Amino acid sequence: MSKEPLVITAAICGAEVTREMSPVVPYTASELAEEARRCFKEGARVIHLHVRRPDGTPTQDGDVFREAMDAIRKQAPEAVIQVSTGGAVGMSVEERTQPLDLDPEFCTLSTGTVNFGDDVFVNTFPMIEAIARKARERGVRMEMEIFDAGFVDNVNLLIKKGVLAAPLHFDFVLGVPGGMTGTTDRLDFLLSTIPQGSTWMVAGVGRFELPLAREAIARGGHVRVGLEDNLFISKGVLAKGSWELVREAVRYAREAGRPIATPAQARDILKIG
Questions:
Q1: Which of 155, 163, 220, 249 matches a 20 to 30 Å C-alpha distance to 19?
Q2: Are strands 58-59 and 80-83 parallel, antiparallel or unpaired?
Q3: Using an 8 Å Cβ cutoff, are 233 and 24 in contact?
Q4: What is the 3-state secondary structure (H, E, C) of 128-196?
């Protein structure tokens, strides 16, 4: 079993979950910053960031991102802020890439189109290339978001085209209705397909989040937890915040004998900076 320090990402807000689903979903910059502080204190080293309007409407507006990022840096100055370039379903590339203009350390890159519940999350090759090229131009480290098996094939094609360069970091987002389910056989298959030398993590959705976190830790990978992906700490029991889900991942790591990465170790493992 791997003893490499574990990097935990906290997905604290997302674009889909609302306060009608859970009253603790953060919307404002101050709320996001406080949640980031709590998650960092519990052991998260990466804050995966979406932003909202005050009424909870998702946005990729650069000014809203700037306000949230500034607030998080005050509350959790050592945390890695990872901006989403996925945004919300239906947004254009121009909308989705606005936070890259703020020169973040880290961003996501979704590498294929997938049914997303009742919607379709569209990522054509020209869209993927445009986002990836802008991230590279801005010097932003990218995380490959993998919702289904073909997404890895798309990454490999983009490497051949020179759009992406190894070594890469992968996030297997498993359990989205319409994407690949969140069972361990799917995880093991995906691990057999990524380029050698890659780092990886798992973001299980809904009931898959915590079981897959445990499995990723056992396999030497890293984990993403938080309200964006799952609102519950146990069946029928709402989490008090993303920080409580981070605390659970830390407990799994301790059981497995894996230390939690320091901020410097996390940046080194993820090849940031």
A1: 249
A2: unpaired
A3: no
A4: HHHHHHHHHHHCCEEEEEECCHHHHHHHHHHHHCCCCCCCCEEEEEECCECECCCCHHHHHHHHCCCCC
- The answer to whether 72 touches 264, Cβ cutoff 8 Å, is no
Please list the ranges in the chain whose pLDDT falls under 50. Answer: none
Structure tokens at 145: 């978001």
Amino acid making up residue 11? A
Q: Exposed, middle or buried: residue 220 (CB in 10 Å: 0-12, 13-18, 19+)?
A: middle
Cα(78)–Cα(60) distance, integer angstroms: 23
For residue 179, give both structure tokens: 């994407």
Q: How far is CA 201 from CA 66, 68, 91, 104, 209, in A?
A: 27, 25, 26, 20, 12
Residue 39, both tokens: 């998650």
Q: Could you tell me the pTM of the whole model?
A: 0.97
Fold adopted by 8-270 = TIM Barrel (3.20.20)
Domain boundaries, the chain: 8-270
